[in-house]
Amino acid sequence: MVGGSYAAVPLYRRFCQATGYGGTIQRRESVEEKIARHAKDGTVTEREIAVQFNADVADGMPWKFTPTQREVRVKPGESALAFYTAENRSSTPITGVSTYNVTPMKAAVYFNKIQCFCFEEQRLLPGEQIDMPVFFYIDPEFETDSRMDDINNIILSYTFFKFSED
């Protein structure tokens, strides 16, 4: 009896965290934890998704910004690496910051960026060119979600904005 009541508190806490019962905040699984769990479970997916890349610069931003590749084909549960290239075409150093979006929007919940240059300041000297990696992962649960049945292409789009001139 004493042992049962001692174990009841941590068991109840785990139950509440797992279910959200009693207003307890549920712990979300990180991308790394999901990858490890699906690797351990041996999750295998068959469907292949074309991830297409888009690059834009805001008005007045004198950079050339392009994806290094137009498309990568990946199965849910796999991670992939892509690159974008930015070049400062002005005669002054410029710092830029990028934002991104994923379309279709309903697929964005399954698209996880593991490493990305978005929201980080990128300072380029006049004429300087850099390659920037995007390491991403499509959650294997994408394949089992019936709302994703009509999705075979995902577009990852970045836009660079001028942050400051140095």
Automatic annotation (TrEMBL):
Principal location class: mitochondrion
A single Gene Ontology CC term: mitochondrial inner membrane
Superkingdom per UniProt: Eukaryota
GO MF annotation: an example: copper ion binding
Xref: SUPFAM superfamilies: Ctag/Cox11
Membrane topology: Single-pass membrane protein
HAMAP family: CtaG
Stored PANTHER family: CYTOCHROME C OXIDASE ASSEMBLY PROTEIN COX11, MITOCHONDRIAL-RELATED, CYTOCHROME C OXIDASE ASSEMBLY PROTEIN COX11-RELATED
UniProt function note: Exerts its effect at some terminal stage of cytochrome c oxidase synthesis, probably by being involved in the insertion of the copper B into subunit I.
Protein name listed in UniProt: Cytochrome c oxidase assembly protein COX11, mitochondrial
Species of the source: Punica granatum (Pomegranate)
